[in-house]
Amino acid sequence: MGDVGEQNGWIKLIEADPGHSQWYIERFRSMASAGEDLAGEARFIDAMLARRSRVLDAGCGAGRVGSFLAAAGHEVVGVDLDPVLVAAAQQDHPGPRWLVGDLSELDLPARGIVEGFDAVVCAGNVMTFVAPSTRRDILRRMRVHLRDGGRVVVGFGTARGYDVEEFLTDVEASGLLTDLLLSTWDLRPFTERSDFLVAVLRPA
After folding, report:
1. Is the residue at 1 inside a domain?
2. What is the 3-state secondary structure (H, E, C) of 60-93?
3. Would the pTM count as exceeding 0.85?
4. Which residue ranges does the record assign to the Methyltransferase domain (predicted)?
């Protein structure tokens, strides 16, 4: 998830525990088998979009969000740094295009994907795992992959090392504007006491 710098939290996790990615995959497979609701983020994105929109799932993991959006009729490309997670997405959710890639250097036209996206979704605390020095680069790369009228949606826990004010400063520095701040994927307002942030952003 994110970049390969030494500060990357996901890389630290899998270096400390090489089985962590597989544990993560099996955890969500078990939750899905048990009938748990894993699609809240995807429903939020789907509600924003016209039918057959293009969606970039940035930090797609094992495909939980992108697969729901693909099943809803959208064209999905997912990108994640972790090849184990991407392989699981390819196995469990055929249809979308799942790619291994560094979000801070993302250049999909160079990989043959030249058409922009109506939405970029970055869920699952991805922005709290990436190296702090790459956060603005990642936000900029999300912005440049948007079509006209496209939006970026980022969600993360507010107690995970990325201060909300710092995030909003990074958003502005990356050429994005804030349209909406929420505290949950089910549309509850954001307040100073919120422990989660969902930010809907658009190009400046």
Report:
1. no
2. CCCCHHHHHHHHCCCEEEEEECCHHHHHHHHHHC
3. yes
4. 55-150
